[in-house]
Design goal:
- This protein is α+β, with helices and mostly antiparallel strands.
- Helices cover about 50% and strands about 15% of the residues.
- It contains 24 helices and 18 strands.
- A seven-stranded antiparallel beta sheet has the order 7-10-13-8-2-16-15. A four-stranded antiparallel beta sheet has the order 3-14-17-18.
- A hairpin with a 5-residue loop joins strand 11 and strand 12.
- Helix 2 packs parallel to helix 5, helix 15 runs antiparallel to helix 17 and helix 21 packs parallel to helix 24.
């Protein structure tokens, strides 16, 4: 038994075990080990090395299809940490290694690059969230991998040494020393990876966005001033949300914050789990309906929202939301009406049911007050009081400013109007702001009035309203006002990320306060026709993928038929058909009659293919760059028996016949008789 193949089998088994342990993939790992075992113990060789190179491209294509169509839960039992597709990437690297067991290699030796693929598998496998025990297991696996890789290359070096070469006496000692050192370094590296995993993630985010701290992501649990600017600047033209609705969706809420301290907004209200109302539909795989209030007989409108980016835990919803139809098992809401879920897959839609007349803040507070122990009534009351709180170290001049701005206004509505007018009349919009060193950003903005972007206007308005006694919250999200005429939906791009204020008026409920000047508001300008058409095609692909995941073939068929009936789609097909027809007519006009081929030459080619196939099955394949005489010589050296001698003679005779003069029926018959009389080689072993 080939010791190199045995070592590679152990290497594959180690990788499969690591995948099964880290990402909970026992079925996949068992199949891979089983196939590797068959290839290790049997003589089944079904492919040539040249064919395997093509299989690599096929696996890459399959990877992109699977990551787009198949839910992550089907190929990974637990989520990765840094790279979303770590488990899937590792699985495909492992599949490619297992394929090598069934390839016809010279001397039945596997390629020397397999340990590199094994290292790649373990690198991606290590991208999981681990406890202390899992960390220890992964460290041991890493040490085992290092040892096996070192032995693999040591075996390769020993086999490649010329016979009789004098070996270094202390080679074994040095090998052991290298293995021990590698194991220690691997242990330290694995420990550092897990210990500093959060720092590594922060470092990567900082490297991609060096201007803004990593913890200030606009839709994370904290909203540092400048985070929305980061979202706007990051691929600003990229579509973030697509919304199917009759009218413009406008403001779509992602996060809401009530506490401001040290240039950062925080959310202190608890998330309360909701229970779906349609258990029957949930059991059949349909979306769950989570309702905040009863909807009997109330006029509502629906917005179908398709996220185009993997917003972690964030569900974007419009104001006045009373119910959410979403394909998840767990959903929670806080006192601000902000929904969160960890189960929503990227690119999966949800439907927001809006009934602005039937819902206000009191309804939500009643819901939270009646919630179980996760959110006691005292917690909701405390969070509500925080909507009028300001920082203790607030500059006294800002309090004086709030008094001047509100003036004689007494009602919440008048105070809101006064604050909006103050910012719109006295400030200018600018993307970005220059804050002198050592100055508090919000204080500098309110007192010195420099040009700034939406986060400063929203934060300043919230502080002035609270100083005037008006409860309010700081909200981040998107404003969707751009329409795609080809896809019949509304678009929110990264540049449409926005921050605003929602203030509570006892007479009108929650009111949107827009203190940002018009130059800083997302515009309703439409994209070019070509850009709209391209995005409509991307939206169609997103819907197709979602249909495959959720509804099967029938849903896909309905979706395709619906799109084919669109007028613009029919026009595209007509143009494509016309282009194909025109191309064929043009090619027929310029085509010259093909030269007739000699039938005797065609018969010779058939004989050559038959002989090539005979020796390919025996493990010897003629390379494209190899001449007939070179291949004949290689056959003689590889198998010095009667069949090899006859085949070598046949190839030389074929070359003399084909390239030495006129090919006629007699020469073809002579080669055919030689082929029939020559012995068959032994099959590959």
């Amino acid at each position: 038994m080939n010791p190199q193949r045995s070592l590679v089998f152990v290497l594959v088994a180690l990788q499969a075990a690591a995948l099964a342990y880290c990402f909970r993939t026992p079925l996949f790992s068992a199949v891979m080990v089983g196939l590797a075992l068959v290839g290790w113990l049997s003589k089944i060789r079904v492919a040539s090395p040249e064919l395997v190179k093509r299989w690599g491209f096929v696996l890459v294509a399959l990877y992109f299809v699977e990551r787009s169509v198949v839910p992550a839960a089907l190929y990974s039992g637990s989520p990765s940490f840094l790279v979303p597709d770590s488990c899937l990437i590792a699985e495909y690297f492992l599949v490619f290694q297992v394929i090598q067991f069934f390839v016809r290699y010279e001397d039945d030796r596997l390629p020397s690059y397999l340990p590199i693929l094994a290292i790649a598998v373990l690198t991606f496998t290590g991208d999981f969230r681990a406890n202390d025990r899992a960390r220890l297991v992964f460290q041991l696996v890493t040490i085992g991998l290092i040892v096996l890789v070192a032995v693999f290359f040591a075996m390769g070096r020993a086999s490649s040494s010329p016979p009789g070469e004098k070996r270094f006496a202390g080679r074994g000692v040095w090998l052991v020393a290298v293995l021990v050192a590698s194991g220690v370094l691997a242990w330290i590296a694995a420990s550092s990876l897990f210990y500093f995993s959060r720092d590594i993630e922060t470092l990567l985010v900082n490297a991609m966005n060096p201007q803004v701290p990593a913890e200030s992501a606009g839709f994370s649990g904290q909203g540092r001033l400048g985070s929305i600017a980061q979202q706007k600047q990051n691929a600003e033209s990229r579509v973030a949300l697509r919304v199917y609705a009759d009218d413009s969706p406008g403001y779509l809420r992602g996060r809401a914050f009530e506490t401001y301290r040290q240039s950062q907004w925080r959310n202190g209200s608890r998330q309360v789990p909701l229970t779906p109302t349609n258990h029957d539909d949930a059991a059949s795989g349909g979306p769950r309906t989570f309702s905040l209030i009863p909807l009997e007989g109330k006029p509502c409108r629906c917005l179908e929202i398709w996220p185009n980016e993997p917003f972690k835990e964030v569900v974007f919803t419009p104001p006045g939301l009373v119910a959410l139809e979403i394909p998840v098992d767990k959903l929670s809401v806080n006192m601000h009406g902000i929904f969160e879920t960890e189960d929503l897959l990227p690119g999966v839609p949800y439907t927001a049911v809006v009934c602005e007349e039937a819902f206000d803040g009191a309804s939500l507070r009643s819901l939270l007050a009646g919630a179980p122990h996760e959110a006691a009534p005292s917690d909701a009351a405390s969070a509500w009081e925080s909507l009028t709180a300001v920082p203790d170290d607030l500059d006294p001049r800002i309090r004086e400013l709030a008094t001047r701005v509100v003036g004689e206004a007494t009602t919440p509505a008048d105070k809101i109007a006064a604050v909006e007018s103050y910012f719109l009349e006295n400030y200018q919009y600018q993307f970005g702001i220059d804050i002198p060193s050592g100055k508090d950003p919000l204080t500098w903005f309110l007192l010195e009035r420099p040009p700034a972007h939406c986060e400063y206007f929203a934060s300043g308005a919230a502080v002035l309203l609270r100083l005037s006694g008006v409860p309010c919250r700081y909200v981040t999200g998107f404003v969707a006002v751009e329409r795609n005429d080809y896809g019949d939906y509304w678009v929110a791009r990264n540049r449409d990320a926005h921050a605003w204020v929602e203030a509570f008026d006892p007479d009108q409920g929650w009111t949107i306060v827009e203190a940002t000047p018009a130059g800083g508001l997302p515009q309703s300008t439409s994209a070019t026709a070509a850009s709209q058409l391209w995005d409509a095609l991307r939206a169609w692909w997103q819907q197709l993928v979602a249909s495959i995941r959720g509804g099967g073939v029938r849903a896909v068929f309905r979706l395709i038929v619906g799109w084919l009936l669109q007028p613009w789609c029919l026009a595209v097909f007509v143009l494509i058909a016309a282009a194909i027809a025109g191309r064929r007519i043009w090619r027929r006009r310029g085509r010259r009659p093909a030269l007739s081929r000699d039938p005797h030459v065609l018969q010779l080619h058939q004989l050559l293919q038959a002989m090539d196939q005979r020796w390919s099955k025996a493990g010897l394949q003629r390379h494209p760059h190899e001449t007939l005489h070179q291949f004949a010589e290689r056959i003689s050296e590889a198998a010095p028996d009667a069949a090899a001698r006859q085949a070598a003679h046949w190839y030389r005779q074929y070359a003399a016949t084909r390239f030495g003069g006129t090919v006629d029926a007699a020469s073809v018959k002579s080669l055919s008789d030689l082929l029939a009389a020559s012995a068959h080689p032994s099959p590959a072993s």
